[in-house]
Write a structure and sequence with these properties.
Helices cover 56% and strands 5% of the residues. The chain is mostly helical. The chain folds into 3 domains: 117 residues, Rossmann fold (3-Layer(aba) Sandwich); 32 residues, no CATH class; 155 residues, no CATH class. Strands 1-2-3 form a 3-stranded parallel sheet, sandwiched between helices.
């Protein structure tokens, strides 16, 4: 959907558009070839002559965790290329492209690479009663006579309403570990309504999880700025380039300034909680998976020992 939308906008504006996906078939058995494939993918999307959109599907299978003995050399090469390309010494932000990383198991992605994701979105399946009714009605199709009943179809899926509710839900943290930090800081300093108090909260999060670094603060502030720019451009601007695209920089800046939303304390708190929740969720999930695997291994060892003794 995103690729199609950007492609249509580019056609109206007269720009070239390039979409490319980096998948598991780009991992090669030859030494260095996987890294070369990843670099070629990055360079194709970065091409300044086009608007680029690059996707990396199932990134937990493609980019290996550093130090993980189960990751292949090719996967380690890909991780090194992506880490350097997305926020490394040679990274140049041209503003002409974006990359998306997708995974069902983000806790398995290398920490340094995951931190380079400026915006994180949890795309869940159905959660509420309304969600289950909507998805059942959608997948059943229209070739039946079963009545819908008392339900406003797809009302809960309205994107603006869903996004607004998602942001408001982060006025308080979701993860238990972060909730404890939030309550402790709130009891000590009161409402988080100044830069100093927000900084105190960030430091408390870092004390609870040392992986919460300066890059996390950069991602949070970037997300806040994106929220301030989260408005709908008038359709006529996109359909008629002369109304916006072909104007001077100062004219376009003034037009956008009129639409920009003010940055509020609530917005900052929500983005801190949203980002930190994901950090705690990834850490807890990763630890829990490791513990479950160890418990399973211990059980196998005990069963093997029991059978061995019985056989003797």
């Amino acid at each position: 959907m995103m690729a199609g939308l950007i492609n249509d906008y580019c056609q109206v504006a007269g720009f070239g558009f390039r979409y490319q996906n980096f998948g598991i078939d780009n991992i090669d058995s030859y030494q260095g070839k996987s890294g070369q494939n990843a670099k070629a993918f990055i360079n194709n999307v970065l091409d300044p002559h086009v608007i680029g959109f690059g996707t990396i599907d199932d990134i937990d299978q493609i980019a290996g965790k550093r130090g993980d003995r189960q990751s292949s050399t090719g996967q380690q090469e890909v991780t090194a290329v992506f880490v350097e390309a997305f926020a490394g010494a040679n990274t140049v932000v041209g503003g002409n492209c974006t990359f998306g990383m997708f995974s069902n198991y983000p806790e398995n992605v290398d920490d340094a690479l995951r931190q380079r994701a400026g915006a994180r979105f949890l795309v869940d399946g159905p959660q509420t009663r309304e969600d289950y009714i909507d998805i059942l009605a959608l997948l059943m199709g229209k070739k039946h006579n079963i009545p819908l009943g008392e339900h406003e179809l797809y009302a809960a899926q309205e994107i603006k309403k869903a996004v607004s509710a998602s942001f408001e839900s982060h006025n308080r943290p979701h993860e238990p570990g972060l909730m404890a930090v939030f309550d402790r800081v709130h009891d000590r300093v009161g409402e988080l309504d100044t830069i100093a108090k927000l900084g105190t909260y960030l430091k408390a999060i870092q004390e609870a999880d040392e992986r919460f670094t300066g890059r996390a603060i950069k991602n949070i502030t970037d997300a806040v700025k994106v929220r301030a720019m989260d408005f709908e451009l008038p359709d006529e601007w996109m359909e008629h380039p002369e109304l916006f695209r072909y104007k001077t920089y100062d004219e376009k800046a003034a037009m956008i300034e009129d639409l920009r939303r003010p940055i509020t304390v609530d917005m900052v708190v929500q983005e801190i909680n949203r980002y930190a929740d994901s950090k705690f969720r990834y850490a807890d999930k990763s630890d829990e998976v490791a513990i479950e695997n160890m418990v399973r291994d211990f059980g196998r060892q005990e069963e093997a020992k029991k059978r061995y003794l019985e056989g003797k």
